[in-house]
């Protein structure tokens, strides 16, 4: 089990859920299925860990978002070819 960042319970587990994410240019939101998350069985909170959030945010900055479908899986999103090697503004 994993420790919940919200309530501190050790009764949390790693799983996946569906999330809506706004594209960096603010033009629209996409639905990302099977996104890694933590599900706390104590307080009921489902959330993405900071590293997952950073992975999604950085990847969206490094790909061409014009052809990103409105709905896709986390794996499909991560498989979209990057146009830049890295986010040079991520310190």
TrEMBL record:
CDD domains cross-referenced by the UniProt entry: MqsA
UniProt superkingdom: Bacteria
Protein name: YokU family protein
